Amino acid sequence: MSKRRWTLFGGGLIAAMVLLVGTSAASGAPQRPPSVPPFNHVFVIMMENTGIEALLNNPNAPWINQAVKTYGVAGNYYGVTHPSQPNYIAATAGTTAGVPDDNDVTVDLPNIVDQLESHHKSWKGYMQGYSLCTTKLDHACGNQLYERKHNPFVSFTDVQNDPERMAKLVDLSQLKTDLASNHVPDYSWISPDQCNDMHGRGGGGPSDPCDFSNEPLLIQAGDTFLANTVDEIMASRAWGPNSVIFITWDESDFTGSATDFGFGDTRGCCDASPGGGHVLTIVIRGDQHEPDASFTEYNHYSMLRTIEDNWHLGCLANTCDTANVPAMTDLVDRRR
To answer: Could you say which of 3.90.230.10, 3.20.20.100, 3.90.226.10, 3.40.720.10 is the CATH number of the domain covering 41-332?
Structure first.
């Protein structure tokens, strides 16, 4: 068994894998056969528009930096593309489906909802701010708190046209109720609102803590959201040895300089290069006893493939390309 840690210097990241016990780890995909028991519960929390360099050693993100030292970290993880919406489609359908932007779109293609239901797995999408909408198809609600582009499920034709499926898209407040009553589904997708996902909104100016211009406050709010949400999940009966939380960011806004932020970061991998840039991804296992890190190249297709493989759901689009889209086995394998 090997144990790895991050080495951080001067606010930047040096992704150094330090082996404390055991043999050296391969830089490519994991070589050992998977031995991961079926997940009891999967939680995916999708954050927004923040590169890994902007978070590590950031004093406004204390929980995130402690989590990096405590749980599993994917150090070479990338968004699939720019802007936001195609990354959400990619994480739930294994392809961007040619979606080029954040405009409202409806796509007719197989998705994880089809896979889950065909294998008798329950699911819900928890969207913060959704209760502020007049209809579940609204573009934006609550002064840009909820944005449809951050809700991938509502854009799938076979979800839109099925009232039972649409009923599974709920406000995030429902998660607390479901956790307390032990009625959490097998698969939970969580989208914070734009004040809590580090995205922000426009028009409010410096007096609005959620305004785009208040980046330190947005990072602080997102960090607090993650701390509270993960604590609630881990304190519930749904949490156990075979449960897992994936925390990732849809795309990077970091272009390479400590003072130069934008969307020029097109680093990518795994059937998506150029991609959406280098982002932090934290993987928390229910049986996590020590920190771990992987430097295999992963992206949102890899996260989806990891869930598919564990539950034997089959594959969707790019997740079928097992040669180039590895599953994140080294971060969910209980033997590590």
So the answer is: 3.40.720.10
